[in-house]
Amino acid sequence: MRYKFIEQNNDSYPVVKMCQVLKCAPSGYYRWLKAPKSRRSQENERLNQRIRALFEEHKGMAGSPMITADLNSEPEFSKVGKNRVARLMKKEGLRCKTVKKFVTTTDSRHKEPVAENLLNRGFDVCSPNHVWAGDITYLRIGRKWYYLSVFIDLFSRIVVGWDLSDSLERYSTMKALNKAILRRRPDRGLMVHSDRGIQYACRDFREKLSTHGFIQSMSRKGNCWDNAVVESFFHTLKTQLTHHVCFKNDQEAEQSLFNYIEVYYNRRRRHSTNNYKSPVSFEEEWVEYKKVA
């Protein structure tokens, strides 16, 4: 440990002086420096480099379980355990960023009909296109606030539809829903869950659901936990992306959101609820399973 300390600080302090303070001989340090590193030490160096690369790829929003899952998908690190990864991450000071709470963006003070909470926090869904959950969050773009509306399939946590708008009117929510319908073409009976905001309670939205034979469900008043999956997505999005970027215009924001949602989140980011598989991979495995079942 003393020699390692000297090696790490030899750019800042003279080697002889550090040896005097640490009560070790400079000759011993130089012999240690020239000695071949152990196999375990070499493995740890390669593992540390890969852990740091993966941590940066996830923009600091990945803990040891997710990093371990990434490593285990690679032949060289297929047998690395999460305890070892956790220990090395702690040693390197790699700690998963914490998420923050954000203000609500929907207005439930209206006289439109409110649907029953049919979902009732039943977030574990057995098949795709069985339950979608929607919500809206705000993003700063230039000097204005914009609003991101999304719909997520609770089976795999994949974002099936999203839209960015400078208005909180219902049109953006309707557009996100239309994108999801065109993309997934769900059957009648799909449940669409949201909060009680006017964007979801308005006549246009309710008529769209009715036309397609969808069932509407709404959270209890002021209870964000009833829509926890989408809230979690927004927290991750903001912590990984929007808190670190100053968007100049909506085109730049659209491109960044596309890269994050479609390229990273849907296809790359692993979810514990998916046995640490990405939403796309989880659904592909489900489809293959259904073919042979």
Please give the share of residues in helix.
40-55%
Task: Tell me the strand order in the biggest sheet.
Answer: 3-2-1-4-5
Number of strand elements: 5
Low-confidence stretches: 99-104
Beta-strand percentage range: 5-15%
The tally of domains stands at 2
**Class by helix and strand content?**
alpha/beta
Mean model confidence by pLDDT: 89
> What name does CATH use for the topology of the largest domain?
Nucleotidyltransferase, domain 5
Taken from the alpha-carbon principal axes, the silhouette is elongated
Let me know the largest β-sheet: 5 strands, mixed
Q: What is the name of the CATH class of the largest domain?
A: Alpha Beta
CATH superfamily of the largest domain: Ribonuclease H-like superfamily/Ribonuclease H
Helix-strand topology string:
HHHHHHEEEHEHHEHHH
For the record, give the distance between the C-alpha atoms at the N and C termini, rounded to a whole number: 56 Å
Count of individual helical segments: 12
CATH architecture of the largest domain: 2-Layer Sandwich
Radius of gyration: 25 Å
What would you say this structure looks like, in words?
The protein has about 290 residues and is an alpha/beta fold. The protein has 2 domains: about 1-90, no CATH class; about 130-290, Nucleotidyltransferase, domain 5. The protein contains 12 helices and 5 strands. The protein has helices spanning about 1-10, 15-20, 25-35, 40-55, 65-70, 80-90, 170-185, 200, 205-210, 230-240, 250-265, 280-290, and strands at about 130-140, 145-155, 160-165, 190-195, 215-220. Strands 3-2-1-4-5 form a 5-stranded mixed beta sheet, with helices on both faces. β1 and β2 (about 145-155) form a beta hairpin. α4 crosses α6 (about 80-90) and α5 crosses α6 (about 80-90). The termini are far apart.
